[in-house]
Design goal:
The chain has 505 residues and is an alpha/beta fold. It starts with a strand and ends with a helix. The chain has 3 domains: 235 residues, P-loop containing nucleotide triphosphate hydrolases (Rossmann fold, 3-Layer(aba) Sandwich), CATH 3.40.50.300; 178 residues, P-loop containing nucleotide triphosphate hydrolases (Rossmann fold); 78 residues, no CATH class. Helix 4 crosses helix 5 and helix 13 crosses helix 14. It is built from 19 helices and 22 strands.
């Protein structure tokens, strides 16, 4: 048995203490869930373990050996690897090249042994239960397959400590089960596994122990048999109020947008629906069903082959994002780090990009005070936790980054907001805030389109749900139908079985 131990770990940043005297142990042969709300310090702790951050004080021990890291390379030499929620793959290289980057096997003559590398990559992918061509370039893979490659990259190092940071956030249900099987096999090999997730439904399926951090302080450690959801939530958040969709959040009969026969070969075909003023419209479907591609087509971020979008009296064909923005539409993308934010720019700047016209004249910055006012307004309204409005967006936790993505668009006063996986990788309280934004927008007569892998979220939040399977709209569920629909019912519809498809032809 190996034990990874943190002893009195403290981490200070300018203006804030991220970790406050944390002492905790994680055993091999177990899957150790590390839980906490966004900004709680859990990501900082695992970055300290992985050498990506240096603690202000305190010590780390692995198997009784005290460890000192200057870089992640030092941690890797000790067998500690972390798989982050957002992948760090090189998109123009193949799966094999990414898995064995910097350590490709060599033949005796010094040339790369591509055959051996591809065979080993295929073995790792098979272990994950996923069919991916080792020769495929990363840029051609959807998000969930990229996450699988990232995990295989870590496993290829035969780690002593494997830290998984939200590994299922981009995975469909069947991929989640494959991942769980692989992780459970790994723990049998004297590997310390730390598993970070915001999905409480996963904890009892995968974890053996639970360790919780709140506001940089250790709040509890328990075996999974002794921790029900109520206890886990309290350890993570203290007292939490779960809000339901308010009765005064309701759509009118006025159509604010209509999508007519929108098609893109290989992704979706002949999609038509209406969006009503004040409506929160959900789109349900499995990963790969065409949900994200449809949203990007509506917004003009990707080209469409045919069809049109109608807003008011204007018909849009072959449009782009700038045209949609001018029409009062906003899009929070699925991958906030690469397409929703400019991470190296300040939080203030990221909160003002969509509404830049409000602070500029002919493209030149007109009022720094106006920019600060706009940014400060969203920081207060969305309760964004930060050290400074001028800090880089990369310094924020995942949940606070998501709030910045949303706040950026709210500063442009959109009439229609399109949310693609806005709750991915964020905690319960941050999710509740995102839902409240949609409901408040509804009360003001603005509309939202909401895509989420978490089926239960759609049922809790939306007035109406469209179901997409294999790129086709197969079912529309109105408010009456949603009253009796269960999570299991909706998931079955998303599977798009032959019965459901025949009923909608």
């Amino acid at each position: 048995m190996s034990i990874l131990r943190a002893e009195n770990i403290t981490k200070d940043y300018p203006g804030t203490r991220a970790l406050d005297n944390i002492s905790a142990s994680f055993q091999s042969g177990k899957i150790n869930a590390l839980l906490g709300k966004n900004g709680s310090g859990k990501s900082t702790l695992v970055k300290v373990f992985a050498g990506a951050e240096k603690q202000t004080s305190g010590s780390i021990y692995l198997g009784g050996k005290k460890l000192e890291f200057k870089t992640p390379i030092d941690a890797a030499k000790e067998g500690i690897f972390i798989v982050y929620q957002e992948t760090s793959l090189v998109s123009t290289l193949s799966v094999t090249e990414n898995v064995f980057m910097g350590r490709l096997p060599l033949k005796r003559n010094g040339l790369v042994d591509w055959k051996a590398a591809k065979i080993r990559t295929a073995e790792l992918l098979a272990k994950m239960g996923v069919n991916i061509n080792p020769n495929e370039k990363i840029l051609h893979l959807p998000m969930w397959k990229r996450q699988v490659v990232e995990i295989c990259k870590a496993l290829s190092n035969d780690p002593k400590v494997l830290i998984l940071d939200e590994p299922t956030s981009a995975l469909a249900q069947n991929e989640v089960q494959n991942l769980f099987k692989a992780v459970k096999k790994i723990k049998e090999n004297d590997v310390v596994i730390i598993y970070i997730t915001h999905k409480l439904s996963e904890v009892h399926l995968i974890a053996d122990t639970v360790t919780a951090i709140r506001d940089g302080v250790l709040t509890g450690v328990a075996d999974i048999e002794d921790a029900d959801n109520a206890k886990i939530i309290y350890m993570m958040f203290g007292d939490v109020e779960f809000k339901k969709r308010p009765v005064d959040s309701a759509p009118s009969g006025e159509i604010c947008m209509e999508v007519r026969n929108l098609s893109r070969k290989g992704w979706y075909k002949d999609i038509s629906f209406k969006l009503y003023r004040g409506e929160v419209l959900g789109i349900a479907g499995l990963l790969g069903s065409g949900r994200t591609e449809l949203l990007r087509g509506i917004f003009g971020a990707d080209p469409v082959d045919s069809g049109e979008v109608v807003i008011g009296n204007t018909i849009y064909r072959k449009h782009g994002p700038m045209i949609m923005k001018e029409a009062g539409v906003g899009l929070t993308p699925e991958d906030r780090k690469t397409t929703g934010l400019i991470l190296q720019h300040s939080i203030q700047s990221n909160l003002c990009y969509a509404g830049m016209k409000k602070t500029t004249t002919n493209g030149w910055i007109e009022s720094a005070a106006k920019r600060k006012e706009m940014a400060d307004r969203q920081v207060r309204a969305l309760k964004i936790k930060l050290s400074s409005i001028n800090a880089r967006a990369s310094s924020l936790s995942g949940g606070n980054q998501q709030k910045v993505v949303v706040g950026n668009w709210l500063n442009n006063n959109p009439k229609i907001m399109i949310y693609d996986e806005p709750t991915r990788g964020i905690d319960i309280t941050a999710k509740q805030q995102i839902f409240e934004i949609m409901w408040n927008q509804s009360k003001e007569g603005n509309s939202s389109i909401f895509v989420s892998t978490e089926i239960e979220e759609l049922l809790d939040v939306c007035h109406r749900i469209l179901v997409i399977s294999h790129g086709r709209l197969i079912k529309e569920l109105d408010a009456k139908a949603l009253e009796t629909l269960t999570v299991s019912d909706l998931f079955t519809l998303c599977m798009g079985d032959s019965l459901n498809e025949s009923e909608n032809q």
